[in-house]
Amino acid sequence: MKVLVYGSGGRDHCLADSYGDSQHVDKVYLVPGNPGVRYTPKGQRGLIELVDLRDFGAVADFCAENQVDLVDVGSENPLEEGLIDVLNDRGIRTIGPKKEYVKIESERAFTDDLLKKIGVPKPEYEVFDEPGKAKDYVRNIGYQVVVKANGLAAGKGAIVCEDVSDAEVAVERIMVEKVFGDSGNRVVIEERKYGTEISFFAYLDGKHAWPLRMFAQDYKPAFDPDDTEAIEKFGGNLNTGGTGCYCPHKLVTPWLVNRIIKEIVNPTVNEIYNHLGWDYKGVLYFGLNLDPYESLDVFEINVRHGDPEWEVLARKLSTDLYEIGSAVCDGTLDTIKQVWNKQHYVDVIAMEGRSKASRGWNKGYPGRYGKGHQIAGLEELEKGVSVYFAGVDENQEKGLVTYGGRVLHVIAGDPTLEGAREKAYRNIEKLTFVDHNNNGANCMRYRKTIGL
User: What is the reported pTM?
Assistant: First the structure.
């Protein structure tokens, strides 16, 4: 069978790699992909092939001409732009929701209202279309808030506020300065909750829900809590698309799994199928908060796998991914058995750090970052350590170079979480992003507390 994965980030590389492990798959096309894949074993032997297509009609033509059996769309933007609809109109089997259904991620206010209506727990919130009214609101309430852009913002649209001043600045940045573009025309101001983040995923096939009974913890803040110097330079510990992850989650028990499915997943899926009437085929991602008193809240729902959560869950999952994907398309998820291996996995993301620019310095991700730094040391990584490439490019002289803020994922597995952490950090320390403008210094940075 032939599978096409649409995307170019680490999550998409990981999806392609997982399909390549299937006994049913003899070819995976990664569209448009990224050049780092060519440096991997599956890329070098042609099992995963990069195809540089971006026009949706051209993707559909390619699938028809090459007899692609299944297309998995990894990220939210092509889903919102209607790639699934284009492919389905051509009779191509897909994993991912239609354009209409993406609003459960792309319109926070819609989703918050839906959850409130069906009684799924979530923080108190208000929605605003005018910055003046939003600022008046945060001045008058008595608790800390999170200010969120209503639309898509690459996982960075939520600003956590310590006080009223922070909240006013957040409203100004999102609604007036338009740091997230038109996604910030409307904001959701939500009560800030304290606790532990839990990422929960379920596949839907239009009839059934197939909750993954395995949880990951994502680390969204850019810096470790004790990295006070960096936090001060950036004006706070800014949220990112994720800086690392581990699974299985330390706090999740079988009792809590059942509770999440009963209180959150089942009511939401029932609303999607039976009241909204959506023929939803794809992934639902529930971003949850578990507070110290074991209260649960939903703070977001997304329409795709998490990044970096999928990178660790995919290593943990033993069930054949093609069989899962095919069941999503056929409406037969109830026939698929869920199998997980016994390992713990830790993903540490290598990011662009401070680097010398032609004039002055780049602060590094999540601020302005440099590009074109040679990635050295990949050949020194231990056998069994997985690398998934995200923000990379290829240079004729330097080979692989950095191109984005989150550059690559280093994932290690071990029978214990401590062992997986030690292995992941031992290997990421072998890598260098060579800053040729600064005497070859290493401008790579990463968080040190993933999995603690």
Answer: 0.94
